[in-house]
Amino acid sequence: MRKILVVTGTRAEYGLLYWTMKEIQNDKDLELLLIVTGSHLSKEYGYTKEQIEKDGFKIDEEIDILIDSDKKSALLKSMGLEMIQMAQSFDRLKPDMLLILGDRYETFVAATCAMMMNIPILHMNGGESTEGAVDEQIRHAITKMSHIHFPGAEYYKERIIKMGEEPWRVYNVGQSGLENIRRLKLFTKEKLEEELEIKFNKKIFLITYHPVTLNIENIEEQINNLLEAISEFDAKFIFTYPNADYGNKIIIKKIEEYVRSNDNAYVFDNLGQLRYLSLLKYADVMVGNSSSGIIETPYFKLPVVNIGDRQKGRLRNKNIIDVNYDSKSIKKGIQKALYDNLYKEEISHMENLFGDGTTSYKILDVIKNINIDKKLLFKKLTY
């Protein structure tokens, strides 16, 4: 039986891995191994380890690495702790392959351990670009460590090959976020109102803003501009917590202050996959800089006001409105999203660039049929 190890460190990443993990778990020829780390083990971020277990997954190892500090060096200390424990976990679990997604530092550490221990690395969502975040370097570094690539679009497949990866290693499987939407039974509007305890009797803004790790000095100004811009609108504002990057505490503090002083604003540390995707279906606009705004929203043809550089370089559907960090630009973007009929007509007919929502089946086929041999492990450049 082939043992496939999955490592996850954030709620967003886990949501994108979910159906592939289910397919591995349900296959008689495969064994799913799971290491949970990062913000999954933090009360501050909703302790999402419990959701993973509720979803029916057995957690084989927990690696607690979060250090509560505002120093940039704290993240490096977390990575050091993770690497020591990850190596020990790999020794105990003895996986045949490592399956990881994206560009987080927790994922980077897992890939480093697997590379040094000659464990084949299968990487989802490579080839993308987020020029405003350190994730950009991490993602491409993982690509060069990995043996099999599962990008989410044909454009990203071509980019990975241009990085010198052999074409036979690269499979366009589409964006896994679409599979979540296609396979889950989303809440009705009434049920979602009940779940969130929010009446949808005004325009609904879904707002997720993460630290821009390569422009961290201006984080307080950025979030202040966002809050100033949305305050111009008569709507209900639903905030989700930022991820666990350096600078997130400033964002959380500002959002919670805003929610306390505005009856039409709400904040959730963790909406959970079903509530979050259902909210994408019924929201009027998404505002912020989350990758979810780029990847999942096109399925619903939801207008997205994407702020700043965090997602710069990523492939875009026509529903994305890119704006600068200043409040005037953000306000103008929101006005276009809500009131520009020509824009609304255009996105109502757009074709999604990110696939058909069958990602897990395509990945499973590769996992089951790829040979673990010298050809797989011995990489060479092709230009």
Instruction: Please work out how many helical segments DSSP would assign.
Output: 17
The CATH architecture of the largest domain comes to 3-Layer(aba) Sandwich
**What is the domain total for the residues?**
2
Q: Could you name the CATH class of the largest domain?
A: Alpha Beta
What is this structure, in a nutshell?
This protein is α/β, with parallel strands linked by helices and 383 residues long. The protein is built from 17 helices and twelve strands.
Question: What do these coordinates show?
Answer:
The chain is α/β, with parallel strands linked by helices and 383 residues long. The chain has two domains: 2-175 and 356-377, Glycogen Phosphorylase B (Rossmann fold, 3-Layer(aba) Sandwich); 187-348, Glycogen Phosphorylase B (Rossmann fold), CATH 3.40.50. 45% of the residues lie in helices and 15% in strands. The chain has 17 helices and twelve strands. The chain has helices spanning 11-26, 49-54, 72-93, 105-116, 135-145, 154-162, 176-183, 189-196, 219-230, 248-261, 273-282, 291-295, 297-300, 327-339, 341-348, 359-369, 374-377, and strands at 2-8, 30-37, 61-63, 97-101, 121-124, 148-150, 203-208, 235-240, 265-268, 285-288, 304-307, 320-323. Strands 3-2-1-4-5-6 form a six-stranded parallel beta sheet, sandwiched between helices. Helix 4 packs parallel to helix 5 and helix 9 packs parallel to helix 10. The two termini are 36 Å apart. 45% of the residues are buried. The model has no long low-confidence stretch (mean pLDDT 93).
